[in-house]
Amino acid sequence: MAPEMTDIHIRTTGVAGRITLARPQALNALTYEMCLAIEAALDQWRADPGVAHIVIDAEGDRAFCAGGDIAEMYQTGTAGDFTYGRRFWADEYRLNAKIFNYPKPVVSFLQGFTMGGGVGIGCHGSHRIVGQSSKIAMPECGIGLIPDVGGSLMLALAPGRLGEYLGTTGARMAAADAIYAGFADHHIDEATWPDLIRALEGGAACDTLAEAATEPPTGALSSRQAQIDQHFGGEQLGDITNSLGHDEGSFAEDTLALMARNSPLSMACTVELIHRLRGPSLSIAKALGLEYRFTYRAMEHGDFLEGIRAAIIDKDRSPKWQYPDLSVPAASVSKMLMPLGENALVLEETPVNALKIGFVGLGNMGAPMAANLARAGYVVAGYDTVVKEVTGVQMANTAAAAAEGADVVLTMLPNGDILRTVAAEVLPAMASGALLLDCSTVDVDSARAVAAVAADNGQIFVDAPVSGGIGGAAAGTLTFMAGGSEAAFAKAQPLFEIMGQKAVHCGAAGAGQAAKICNNMILGATMIATCEAFALADKLGLDRARMFDVVSTSSGYSWSMNAYCPAPGVGPQSPADNGYQPGFAAELMLKDLRLSQQAAEAVGADTPMGAQAMELYRQFVEDEDGLGLDFSAMLPRFVKQGRPE
């Protein structure tokens, strides 16, 4: 058992392992020592047959736990020592995961304020009880952090876009709202809590808690869901603030006022984090791992120290945030959420992965993908016909040598013919049951042909073309569209989580390529339409910035407009602001559009807009000056070109 502490009382009473937070004068803020003591107790009770369930409560009526005690983090961080904070967060997150995965029921009684670190202790158990005084929130953006301690998992699971709203505003939830959002389970009159705890200590089953539950007073969130979904459905923070800024209603005004107090960098990273988590690959380990990427960098590169100074130390409530105009570059978000390599969070429940990886095709996309895998601790052997060195990768002399003894071989290649050739070389070198994971964009027939050869060879195959460009490959924010069996996709999943933000299992072999070419056919056509519209706006005398403000919050909304605007100086940073140096080259768009039309012809699909987009990009790349430029450089092309006679 952990040593007795005055800040926390840990004991066994009857059949209950009992934890009582005992710092009411400090709103039961969680210290590092309290975290370690709770973890030690949980470890002991896990295998104790005399302990049926865990009960966590707190002294005082103002708070269950208002967060973590961050004074020591500030003192060490301002002295240039980031080690203490990083160790605190890593150990705290390990505790959060243990509570989430605990094999016995964990009951928490959440009176008053439950915020930040209190959510990590009180909201991951099996039975979360709220009452009439409960106020739950994730206000970390207000001090330059992001919703952490596993709170991002609950935000990603909340209805609609409620997670983005709660995460960026720090809005407080009373009992009904906390239950609606997924942070609590039952509302029970607080006057009855002592008797319920005694009953649990005496052997009552946790199921009796549901019998004691009553209907809480009506909350506000469910009635605001439609407005929240309307305004918080954008891809980036700028989309959200744009939408709110064009609404003159009281909800938008109040929401912007809440957000104005918070760190723009933190809010932008919160939106990105929730988007990466939302989906079938969501897990507590993934949520905590992504959170730790941010908190690891929070003192050195984020707004955390400034946020604490303004809120706790000087108490002037006037933090000097980075990006005060709310225009946070995508590169800054990616920097805060990049993989940490050997410094990545390790949870006790996460086994060490000893997979050996081969990687063939180390060009502009493949090299940073392979480097991210190496930084994550994998042994990576690589081969490329041109590139001879990649950080962390052991270079081989042939593709077969890179594949020798590998559990997984990744390929990132120019076309289907080369994929077939490389597969014929590497598959014989791979062990039975090994995975060939192709991340190239190739024709569907080639993907299916290689899958068949792999199956005949006793191996598994996944075609997983990517979206996100060179920047996404470097930042580990790619999206993978995967085709293959469930077992093959499951084997690839841990690698997807290192190299990207999202992986979608689209179906059997070839389905990933099908999804990619359909997606990029839409992208090519919408970019052309966006560029045409800007060129038309110029000729009509419409200011580009004002057009963006209208279209980005109206029915013309698209990724091409809102996230990758082709007009320089308008919207978020994009290749247009860098002389159209390619993030996604026009010739690669032409390649993908040709693949889409090849597939359409094979199955008899009528795709006239896709065909016209292909022809326009063909002219741009082959007959004009588009080779080597970004695919959004269609805008200056249309500006220069008048209407055909």
From TrEMBL:
A Pfam family recorded for this sequence: ECH_2
A biological-process GO annotation: L-valine catabolic process
Keyword terms: Branched-chain amino acid catabolism, NAD, Oxidoreductase
Residues in Enoyl-CoA hydratase/isomerase domain copies: 17-332
Coiled-coil blocks: none
NCBIfam families named among the record's database cross-references: HIBADH, PRK05617.1
Molecular function via GO: (3S)-3-hydroxyacyl-CoA dehydrogenase (NAD+) activity; 3-hydroxyisobutyrate dehydrogenase activity; NAD binding; NADP binding
Protein name per UniProt: 3-hydroxyisobutyrate dehydrogenase
Domain named 6-phosphogluconate dehydrogenase NADP-binding: residues: 356-507
InterPro entries cross-referenced by the UniProt entry: 3-OH-isobutyrate_DH-rel_CS, 6-PGluconate_DH-like_C_sf, 6PGD_dom2, 6PGDH_NADP-bd, ClpP/crotonase-like_dom_sf, ECH_dom, HIBADH, HIBADH-like_NADP-bd
EC identifiers of the protein: 1.1.1.31
Domain 3-hydroxyisobutyrate dehydrogenase-like NAD-binding: residue ranges: 510-635
Organism from which the protein derives: Roseobacter cerasinus
